TrEMBL record:
Catalytic-site annotation from UniProt: C8, R14
UniProt record similarity statement: Belongs to the low molecular weight phosphotyrosine protein phosphatase family.
The keyword Hydrolase belongs to this UniProt entry's keyword annotation: yes
Keyword Hydrolase attributed: yes
Leader peptide range in chain numbering: none
Species the sequence originates in: Brachybacterium muris UCD-AY4
Superkingdom of the source species: Bacteria
GO molecular function, one term: protein tyrosine phosphatase activity
Name under which the protein is recorded: Phosphotyrosine protein phosphatase
Classification via Pfam families: LMWPc
Domain Phosphotyrosine protein phosphatase I: 2-164
Length: 172
């Protein structure tokens, strides 16, 4: 897995938090984020940026961007809600073979017991990772406590994912 895309609604809270946290944990992976209804050009939400900094990430320089079909060519696409998967399906149906909800990423990471995640692992996982119980709540403008809960939920999925992704020596 050389590239990961996170998708949320405004691309100012959940997906940029996940992007920047995974980038800090797995600097050898190309990580991006986009929004289905992005607040284009906006910085990361201040509460989520504070949560990110507390967890070792950095929101500096982040700007919100809209999801485009070319973005969906990532090796792994992780959405925050099933509505985002619906947009992915509408934009590029084949991308669903590489897509699922971030809230189910722990089961994906569990597939990497014998080595880094493979395309085959992602395809198998994607078929079972689209249920609403894998949604990450949107903290937008809901205060620091809600941002903290969303950040914790994201971190619980991103940390094992980072460990499961290929390391530089695996992609050489």
């Amino acid at each position: 897995m050389a590239s990961v895309l996170f998708v949320c609604t405004g691309n100012v809270c959940r997906s940029p938090f996940a992007e920047r946290l995974l980038a800090a944990l797995a600097p050898h992976v190309r990580v991006t984020s986009r929004g289905t209804h992005a607040l284009v050009g906006s910085a990361m939400d201040a509460d989520m940026a504070a949560e990110l900094q507390a967890r070792g990430g950095d929101a500096a320089g982040f700007v919100s961007r809209s999801l485009a079909p070319v973005d969906l060519e990532a090796d792994l696409v992780l959405a925050m809600e099933t509505a985002h998967l619906d947009v992915i399906r509408d934009e590029q149906p084949a991308a669903l073979l590489r897509s699922g909800l971030l809230g189910h990423a722990d089961s994906l990471a569990g597939l990497a017991q014998d080595g880094p995640l493979t395309v085959r692992d992602v395809r198998s996982w994607s078929r079972t990772s689209r249920t609403a119980d894998g949604a990450i709540a949107d903290p937008y403008r809901r205060g620091r406590r809600v941002a903290g809960r969303s950040a914790t939920a994201i971190e619980e999925m991103v940390r094992p994912l980072a460990a499961a992704l290929s390391r530089p020596e695996d992609v050489a």
